[in-house]
Amino acid sequence: MANLVYKRVSTDQQSTARQNLVLDEAGIEDPVVFEEDPGTSSRLHPLQRP
Question: pTM for the full model?
Answer without folding.
Answer: 0.65
